[in-house]
Design brief:
With 642 residues, this protein is of the alpha+beta class. It is 56% helix and 16% strand. It is elongated.
């Protein structure tokens, strides 16, 4: 019998049992063992071909079903309908008793039962699976398919009592789960399950995985479509609002165009404020990041009474008096809320819009408005706040750039005074090194950036230089009085930082050669103030008395004598008196009037009269211990100088 008979069987898709017929017929006919072996081999080959054809036919059917599924999913627009179609098709393709899907909950960090098909248990339909718990939690955590022929006998995953109870109530035994993945992110798990023991083949795992891939894309498309619908609805609503407020929109557009034109033409904050008050009316105050007015006055935000009470403040019924301090506090609270919300905030009769950059308040606009203000008008105020912030940022950027140039120049004057072209570089930034200047060194705690910005702004305004060197600020400002300048800088910077700033100064200096030495002496003055527990003050060497004489580079004895004893020396010179000699004897006698009189061979009353004259010249506190010590040192130096 020829092996061709097996080809005929394959052609008519005969059952596997029929392939035994040719072998049995040959054995009955008494065929030789060799012939029987050939037929047996042909039979096995034919069965292999039959199985291959069946597998390909099954794969073709599965691919066709997947293709149909993809088409069905593409035609669906509602997310719930998409999810139900996915689960129903999974159950049909694998021929299981049930199918279900869990989706990831990013808020709670677990997965929850989204939709089921073939389920009968309410507890099972309400199930939540923690990441890594149960078969489904393991699939969601590892993004890898898992299958079990007998769920309760399988120890590969962590069994949880609540999950096992729900599975048992549903009567499920064999479960296959595959991840729903979008890129590298797991958004859920798709399951197929049987209520009896059933091993899942690799082909079934691949089939459900293919369906899960289609499902993940369909879910994402449905989500995007829903978001698009929501966006379209919002746009439609916005369009209706725009149409309903066309006049206000035109006014806002006009204000926007005018403010944009101001920016392009180089306008300032005052110009923007003028546009706002012209378009919206009322009174406007623009505040900087620290709450200080840039334009306008907080007091202007208080409503006024008409002719029957000109100049007096008006308060609403039930509202107590509210002075500028209370108004400023109200604006500060509203500004903080505005920055948090990103919108205009209304407080009483004030509209407040505030802008910050990197959590740093930049500017606040406060408008006094009577009556109801349309949303579009509030947007005008917000837009004005943004334009103001841009102008301030631009101004700050320019100042910082110029500050860097000035800072580098001052660094070179201190560290490299031998460099060529320093005077020319100074002239380019408006600094004339041939004039008298004072070098000031400031020590402060915290607020490094704010302090540097303050110093840079101060130097620019006063045609000087400023730089940050380590933990100190250095300023080179025009002037010839180090002490008063140091006191002013210490006071103003302390107020700006809200904490003590200590300033030491030296000068005057001319040219670039003496800047380095003046910087060293100014540092010593600042260090001396801190050592004397005088943080927050400012002084030059002259103001520090004999301490200044010790720390100064120039050892200016004449200046020290002039400060401590000058009026007495001048009086003696003009009148020919002996007040200096009397002072020397008085201190030598330990403050005794009688011993002083004996030493000078004069009457005690004469000593008293001379001391009264000294009090008039030096001040009533000249005998205080600290002052007396400086005077005695000055007397010693005066005597040594001859």
């Amino acid at each position: 019998m020829s092996a061709r008979v097996f080809l005929d069987l394959l052609a008519r898709e005969a059952s596997a049992v029929e392939f035994e017929g040719p072998v049995l017929a040959a054995r009955t006919a008494g065929a030789s063992p060799q012939k029987l072996a050939e037929l047996e081999e042909a039979k096995l080959t034919a069965l292999k071909v039959r199985e291959l054809l069946r597998r390909r036919a099954r794969r073709e059917a599965e691919l066709s079903a997947l293709f149909d599924t993809a088409g069905d999913l593409a035609g669906l627009r509602d997310l719930d309908a998409v999810l139900e179609a996915i689960v129903r098709r999974a159950r049909q393709l694998l021929g299981t008793d049930a199918a279900y899907m869990t989706l990831h909950d990013p808020v709670r960090g677990d997965t929850w039962m989204r939709v089921t098909d073939g389920s009968v248990s309410a507890k099972f339909r309400a199930l939540r699976l923690a990441m890594g718990a149960g078969l489904g939690g393991l699939v969601a955590q590892t993004a890898t398919p898992y299958a079990t022929a007998d769920y309760f006998a399988d120890e590969r995953f962590r069994h949880m009592t609540d999950i096992d109870d729900a599975v048992k109530e549903e009567g499920l035994v064999a479960i296959l789960g595959v991840p729903l993945k979008l890129g590298g992110r797991v958004i859920g798990v798709l399951f197929a399950a049987n209520r009896s023991v059933r091993p899942f083949t690799q082909d079934e795992v691949v089939l459900l995985g293919s369906l899960a891939a289609h499902a993940a894309v369909a879910i994402d498309n449905a989500r995007l479509l829903q978001e698009t619908r929501n966006a379209l609805e919002e746009l439609s609503e916005a369009n209706r609002q725009v149409n309903a407020h066309s006049e206000a929109v035109e006014r806002a557009a006009l204000a926007h165009d005018r403010m944009t034109g101001l920016v392009l033409r180089g306008g300032g904050v005052e110009d923007v404020a003028a546009v706002v008050t012209e378009v919206l009316g009322g009174s406007l105050v623009v505040l900087d990041g620290t709450g200080r007015p840039i334009t306008g006055d907080v007091d202007d935000l208080e409503p006024r009474i008409g002719p029957d009470g000109a100049g007096a403040r008006r308060h609403r019924p039930g509202e107590g008096p509210r002075g500028p301090a209370a108004t400023a506090a109200m604006i500060a609270d509203a500004a903080q809320a505005s920055r948090a919300l990103g919108r205009t905030v209304r407080k009483d009769n004030l509209l407040v819009a505030s802008v910050d950059v990197g959590a740093e308040p930049l500017c606040t606009l406060a408008l006094r408005a009577e009556g109801q203000v349309a949303d579009t008008d509030q947007r005008i105020l917000e837009r004005a706040a943004l334009v103001t912030a841009l102008l301030l940022l631009f101004r700050r950027t320019v100042a910082e750039a110029e500050g860097r140039v000035r800072g580098e120049l001052l660094d070179d004057l201190i560290s490299h005074p031998e460099l060529d072209g320093l005077a020319e570089r100074a002239r380019r930034v408006g600094v004339d090194l041939d004039r008298d200047h004072v070098v000031t060194v400031v020590r402060h705690e915290g607020g490094r950036e704010r302090a540097a910005f303050w110093a840079s702004s101060r130097a620019t305004l006063e045609h000087g230089l400023a730089t940050q060197r380590g933990d100190e600020l250095v300023l080179l400002l025009p002037g010839d009085r180090p002490g008063p300048l140091a006191k002013r800088i210490a006071a103003e910077l302390s107020a700006s930082l809200g904490r003590p700033a200590t300033a030491g100064a030296c000068g005057p200096v001319r040219g670039h050669a003496g800047v380095a030495a003046a910087h060293r002496e100014a540092r010593r003055c600042a260090d001396a103030l801190l050592a004397l527990d005088r943080a927050g003050e400012g002084a030059g060497a002259a103001e520090l008395g004999f301490v200044g004489l010790l720390i100064g580079d120039g050892r200016d004895i004449g200046s020290f004598l002039g400060t401590a004893l000058g009026p007495v020396i001048d009086y003696d010179t003009r009148r020919g008196t002996a007040l200096v000699r009397t002072l020397t004897a008085y201190f030598s006698a330990g403050g005794s009037l009688s011993r002083t009189a004996d030493a000078l061979h004069i009457h005690v009353n004469t000593v008293t009269q001379r001391l009264d004259r000294i009090s008039q010249l030096l001040g009533a506190d000249w005998q205080d211990p600290e002052r007396a010590l400086e005077i005695q040192l000055a007397l010693r130096l005066h005597r040594l100088r001859g």
